[in-house]
Amino acid sequence: MSSHQANNPPPIAVPRREAELEELLIDAEADDAEVQQSHPAPRRPWLLLLGLILVALNLRPALSSMAPLLSEVSRSLGLSAAQAGLLTTLPVLCLGLFAPLAPVLARRFGAERVVLGILMTLACGIILRSSLGDVGLFAGSILGGASIGVIGVLLPGIVKRDFAKHAGTMTGVYTMALCLGAAMAAGATVPLSQHFDSSWALGLGFWALPALAAALFWLPQVGKRQGAHHVAYRVRGLLRDPLAWQVTLYMGLQSSLAYIVFGWLPSILIGRGLSPTQAGLVLSGSVIVQLASSLAAPWLATRGKDQRLAIVVVMLLTLGGLFGCLYAPIDGLWGWAILLGVGQGGTFSLALTLIVLRSKDAHVAANLSSMAQGIGYTLASMGPFAVGLVHDWTGGWTALGWIFAVIGLGAIVAGLGAGRSLYVQVESEKI
User: Fold this and answer.
1) Domain interval for residue 95
2) Transmembrane stretches, by residue range (predicted)?
3) Structural domain includes residue 378
4) CATH assignment at residue 184
């Protein structure tokens, strides 16, 4: 099966609106029929749904819980700003580096077993991060980031497989659970550490408990349904396709801004006079706003002829919120934080939407997703590290505006290419 002829084919325009959605639905239904022959529907879908929500809730607390305590952790362990930047960079880097392991592990052990096992490694990483000093801090951050990278690749496939008729709605629920988990950790970590006698280690380590709870609720899924991952396809040509690279760059650059916010926004706000609790609540509120915009942005973006205008709008909102949090008077901070949340919820959900819209069929989408996440998150990790370096060199936060501007403008340029109504030019065949 081929999305294009092999000899330098002309670009194919993506059908608009209803026609586009109908074609994607036909492709998806054909794939689902093939999968369901070897993979029966879950007997208790409500239990699977609950498990998916609980797993998704745990894919961001390990990242967002560190930010409100970063200054305290750095003082306690004597970390420089560059080392603190590396601490915020390592988990994001691992998202990209370990993402390619997910399909390999799923084919060998089954997706359900891998999710259960990786939830346990995630809990171990969170516990390790809270013990053994700076060595445990960095080792646990690596293990936690690697765990999130693997699970993050597997969950969308499980949603598509077991909720094929409601994949769009379930993807929205999955995305909202991600945002909710991030918001909970950002807002509750400092109060938790204060509750535990001002122990940042216990405040960070608390988030191992939700991961263990998710593993307990996921346990009934293990061993029931295997086989969906044995249907394999080879997709050729993604790395040579300019559109695939534009989608990947947009994914990576918008993610870079997102993880700068997760890793550094509370420290920036503390530097502007807020308490750690106040800074964590601002981050939490900004992330909560993403619940609405992450659902609304893709729906609005598919109403037009392409997604370029939507990409420009959400990126400008994101940059406006970032510059407001960095430079505007502090008494208007909540307004800028809300603006930032509206923008970043849209940029993230549009990045996921572009993977589907730029792919001819589900197999191409899976490979484009792997490329966009693997390379994109690796690229995204450079943003938080650059913030730490610049802060170390300058001793302040003022110069960060240049980092925001460069990354944001780069995302707009990549998004203008990725938002065009075209398919990536690849070949796909069953193996």
Assistant:
1) 17-430
2) 46-63, 83-102, 114-132, 138-159, 171-193, 199-219, 243-265, 277-297, 309-330, 336-357, 364-387, 399-423
3) yes
4) 1.20.1250.20
**Domain total of the chain:** 1
How much is the average pLDDT of 390-396? 88
Position 413 scores a pLDDT of 97
Does residue 24 belong to any structural domain of this protein? yes
For residue 225, pLDDT over 60 is answered with no
Average pLDDT over every residue of 202-223: 89
Express each pLDDT in 125-166 by its tens digit.
Answer: 999 998 888 889 999 999 999 999 889 878 777 776 677 666
Which residues face 429 on adjacent strands?
234
Please state, rounded to an integer, the average pLDDT across all residues of the chain: 81
d(CA 283, CA 74): 19
How much is the pLDDT for 363?
67
Neighbour-count burial for 58-68, b at 16+ CB within 10 Å, e otherwise = bbbbbbbbbbb
Write down the pLDDT at residue 238.
84
State the pairing for strand pair 233-236/427-430: antiparallel
Task: Give pTM, 2 decimals.
Answer: 0.75
Q: At 404, phi and psi to the nearest 5? A: -60, -45
In a domain, 241, yes or no: yes
